[in-house]
Amino acid sequence: MIRRILFSLIGLALFMPGLSFGEEFEGIHCYSGTFTPMNKNRELPMMFSWKQNGIIMSKSENKFLDNATTHWEGVQVRIGEPREGYTVGHIIDPDGDMIAAYGIYKGLGGGSKGEFKEGTGKYKGIKGSFTSKRIASGKKPPWPGTYQRCRLVKGTFELPPN
């Protein structure tokens, strides 16, 4: 009985008019950043803060965030596989409209999750989420204390009706 009710509710939700799961997007985010150690005590796990700037190249037909620039800042505990971090950032499209977002990550696999929280201009009222995975990482930075990487970003977003 419970199974039948559950399937009925799922079926109803899938076919309800006006119910939206958001528009999909995919892009490549490349960036360069710096990091600052927060402690040098060997008895505590390594902690540091970081800042990075980058650009997004959309791979989606809708060209969501194509040529948008980014600024992200975060904190991380540990390096390697046990690492975990928290990040906040903003994305600015070529028209100057912005999106505020945040994310979390764990482990060395390079995966992270984030959400679009607020926006200006055409992004006012945006809601959405994304995942990202590292696809390229420079092995020899051009300057000490810097890093260069690219990530594949996929997700969905929803804008309120005009």
- In terms of per-residue confidence, which ranges show pLDDT below 50 for 5 or more consecutive residues? 5-20
The CATH class assignment is Mainly Beta
| SS-based class | mainly beta
Work out the radius of gyration: 19 Å
Overall mean confidence score, pLDDT: 87
CATH topology, which one?
AOC barrel-like
Quaternary status: single chain
Question: How many structural domains does the protein architecture include?
Answer: 1
- What helical percentage do the residues reach? under 10%
Tertiary shape: elongated
How many helical stretches?
1
The CATH architecture classification is Beta Barrel
Q: What is the number of E strands?
A: 8
What amount of the residues lies in strands? Answer: over 45%
SSE order, one letter for each helix or strand: HEEEEEEEE
How widely separated are the two ends? 42 Å
Search tags:
mainly beta; AOC barrel-like; eight-stranded antiparallel barrel; 1 helix; 54% strand
Q: Please, could you describe this protein's structure?
A:
It is elongated, with a radius of gyration of 19 Å. It has an 8-stranded antiparallel beta barrel with strand order 1-2-3-4-5-6-7-8. 9% of the residues lie in helices and 54% in strands. The chain has a single domain (22-158), classed as AOC barrel-like, CATH 2.40.350. The longest helix is centred in the N-terminal third of the chain and has 14 residues, at 2-15. It has 1 helix and 8 strands. The protein has 162 residues and is mainly β.
